[in-house]
Amino acid sequence: MKVGQIAAIVIITLICGCTSNPGKNAPTEKTWRNLDMPEFEAVHSSVDGSDNEFLIFGNISISKPVSNVGPSLERFLGRWEGFDLGTPVRNDVKIVLAIRDISDSRGTAAIWSGTNLQYPSNVEEFEFSVRPGAEPAIEGALEFSPQFGMNGSKAVLYLRFDKATGDLVGGIKNPGNNKIERPVELGKGRTFFVYRDYAAYLAGKGITTRQYSEESLSSYGNGYLLYLPEGYDADPMKSWPAILFLCGVGDRGANPYLLAKASPFMMVRENKPFPFIVIAPLLNTSGPYRSFPSAYLDGVVKELRTKYRVDPGRLYLTGISMGGEAVYRFALLKPDLFAAAAPLSAAFAKYLRGYTSEVRETAGIPLSRLKGFPILAIQGMHDIVVPIEFAKESVDSLAKAGADICLNALENHDHDVWTDTYSDPAFYNWLLAHSRQ
Predict the structure, then answer these.
(1) In angstroms, rounded to a whole number, what is the distance separating the alpha carbons of residues 334 and 363?
(2) Is 168:186 a contact under the CB 8 Å cutoff?
(3) What is the mean pLDDT of residues 136-159?
(4) N or C: more exposed end of the chain, with fewer CB within 10 A?
(5) Count of Cβ atoms closer than 10 Å to residue 238 Cβ
(6) What is the DSSP letter of 367?
(7) Is 119 strand, coil or helix?
(8) How far is the C-alpha of 244 from the C-alpha of 341, rounded, in Å?
(9) What is the C-alpha separation between 175 and 13, in angstroms, rounded?
(10) For residues 332 and 228, what is the distance between their CA atoms, to the nearest angstrom?
């Protein structure tokens, strides 16, 4: 079997994995486990002999040119990885490109890309043409997903070799105007990998999926992702601080493992000390709601406090973007439940398009209900999804009402402030500095 045929098999399996709920403790686990096949290792290479962690495209064969194309073209060959640098979230879309062969006029390559490489949005083989010249370049047509702003239509990947950096630079061209609309930068190295069994990897970190005891909660979302801190089972009398995390709109759906990426679970995955219970509820993509309904969050908190040994004075609320809006709203509705709250890349629902039912949930409730309540709002100065002005107005109105609120506006950040925040121990120290009597 040729490598191209093998890659096609991986494409089909992974696209199925993107739309399912794979892994242990999940309703449809066999889809992801279909990757447990000989072809998987023919395309990807094991990292340090692991039977679960694999370098993406690490085993795709690279062919020497059949004729002398010269060093300017031959240096395109090989495996490259990097990022889409376009807005609204720079570096969110990760790209792995394996250029398998090249001549003076054409070549073939395989590409893997997505905001979460474990569940990629694009995996495909394609042919490209070579544009000769003093700075040769390659161009290939691809069926990019909506994450690149191309709405699933054909677009062109254009790349040239940058002599100064040794990188491939260029981007995604719109065929209609031949302009680069999404800049891309790819370099050589061993960076991006996937797990053949992601559920097993997370379980090894203590992160698992759970179903709700109260069946009515499943109408909002199919369960939640849970972390119980190391030592939780050793002392059945000890209570623990807990974090309720609310995801952004991109992680809605049926796959709970998406919640492990942009969330406090980052600290757990990075093997840093983490003395919190963490619960992250799923939210369906369908339903008469734009964000987390308060009735759903009420039930989730009840489940959290009933099933797990949560310190009632150290329950914290945080979330990103859509989930950050819900943090503001739910803190206003239920301030007595939480010791502190931290909305990221967020604003009040009234500043956001389409949040009419969420606005109605807090209609008539005075902001003074949050007087003295600790809130840390974190916002990117260059956020075009939730502009900094909306975040400032939300914070200012709460400050005038007496909330103990601080806005941390981050320079050189766009919508993504969660990567730096949720991997910073100082953020969790701020949480722990607050408790409710």
Answers:
(1) 14
(2) yes
(3) 72
(4) C
(5) 11
(6) G
(7) coil
(8) 10
(9) 29
(10) 27
The upper half-sphere exposure of residue 241, i.e. CA atoms within 13 Å in the direction of its Cβ, equals 19
Instruction: Report which of 105, 102, 113 is spatially closest to residue 155, judged by C-alpha positions.
Output: 113
Q: Which domains does the chain possess?
A: 58-193 (2.40.128), 205-432 (3.40.50.1820)
Q: pLDDT, tens digit, for every residue of 164-184?
A: 999 999 998 877 777 888 899
Name the residue among 217, 205, 325, 292 with its Cα closest to residue 257: 205
The HSE-up count of residue 398 (CA atoms within 13 Å, CB side) is: 27
- Measured at the CA of 259, the angle between CA 269 and CA 143, to 5 degrees, comes to 110
pLDDT in tens, 18-59: 323 333 333 333 222 233 445 788 889 999 999 999 999 999
Distance CA 206, CA 214 (A): 23
Instruction: Report whether 308 contacts 230 (CB < 8 A).
Output: no
- Give the DSSP per-residue string, 181-232: EEEEEEE-SS--EEETTHHHHHHHTTEEEE--SSGGGGGT-S-EEEE--TTT
In angstroms, the CA 124 to CA 242 distance is: 41
Task: Round to the nearest angstrom and report the end-to-end CA distance of the chain.
Answer: 66
pTM: 0.87
Q: Provide the CB-side half-sphere exposure for 206 (13 A, CA).
A: 22
Contacts 24+ apart (CB under 8 A), 202-209: 202/23, 202/257, 202/260, 202/269, 203/24, 205/268, 205/269, 205/271, 206/230, 206/268, 207/260, 207/265, 207/268, 207/269, 208/24, 208/25, 209/23, 209/24, 209/25, 209/26, 209/256, 209/257
Specify the residue for token string 């909002």: 220
**Angle between the 322-333 and 294-307 helix axes, to the nearest 10 degrees?**
80
